[in-house]
Design brief:
It is built from nine helices and no strands. It is mainly alpha-helical.
Length: 178
C-alpha cells in the first residue's frame, strides 16, 4: 500500500497523514492496535453477558470469528509479525494478545467450574481454541458460513474429533500409564 493511496482514500493530504503516522510501520501498528481494541471491547461485553458458561464460550467463538469474517486482510495483518521476537512492537502485541487470551480463559474456567468442561489447564485449552479459530478463519472457503464455522469450532472444542469407540482404547491406555 502506498501512503499516497491511503491519503487519497482517507481524503487527507499526504502531509497530514505523515503528521499522524511518520511511517507506514506506524500506520500499520495504529490500524492493528485499533482493530484489536475493538475486538477486545466486543469480547469483554460477551464474557460479561448473562449466559450459561458453554453458551458464553460459543458466543466468544462467534464474536471472534465474526470480527474477522469480512476483515480477512486485518487477520493477516495482525498475524504477520506475531512471531518476530526482535520487533520493537512485539511486547505491545503480546500484551494485547494476552488480554484476549485471558477473556477466553475466564470462560473456560467458568465452564469447568460448572462441570461443563473436564478439569483442564485453562491457558492451554484457550491457546488450543485460539489456534482452532485461527485455522478456521485462515482456511475457510467461500462456501463456509459464519454459523457453520462457529458450530464446527465449538463442536470440535467441546466434543473432540474422536468417536466413543476411539476414546475407549485411549482411556484404557491412560489408565495403564498411571
Amino acid at each position: 500500500v502506498l501512503m499516497d493511496d491511503v491519503a487519497r482514500t482517507a481524503r487527507v493530504s499526504k502531509g497530514t497523514l505523515y503528521r499522524y503516522f511518520p511511517s507506514k510501520g506506524e500506520l500499520y501498528l495504529a490500524v492493528m492496535f485499533e482493530g484489536l481494541e475493538r475486538l477486545q471491547a466486543d469480547l469483554r461485553k460477551t464474557v460479561s453477558a448473562e449466559a450459561a458458561p458453554l453458551a458464553k464460550l460459543e458466543l466468544l467463538i462467534r464474536c471472534m470469528l465474526e470480527h474477522f469474517w469480512d476483515r480477512r486482510f486485518f487477520f493477516a495483518l495482525i498475524h504477520r509479525n506475531e512471531h518476530k521476537p526482535d520487533d520493537r512492537n512485539n511486547h505491545e502485541w503480546l500484551r494485547r494478545r494476552e488480554e484476549l487470551s485471558r477473556l477466553f480463559q475466564r470462560a473456560v474456567r467458568e465452564a469447568a467450574a460448572a462441570g461443563q468442561l473436564r478439569p483442564l489447564n485453562p491457558r492451554v485449552a484457550t491457546e488450543m481454541l485460539l489456534g482452532m479459530l485461527r485455522g478456521a478463519n485462515r482456511y475457510r472457503t467461500s462456501h463456509d458460513t459464519l454459523d457453520s464455522t462457529v458450530a464446527a469450532v465449538f463442536d470440535l472444542f467441546i466434543c473432540g474429533a474422536g468417536t466413543t469407540a476411539a476414546r475407549r482404547p485411549l482411556a484404557v491406555r491412560n489408565t495403564r500409564e498411571r
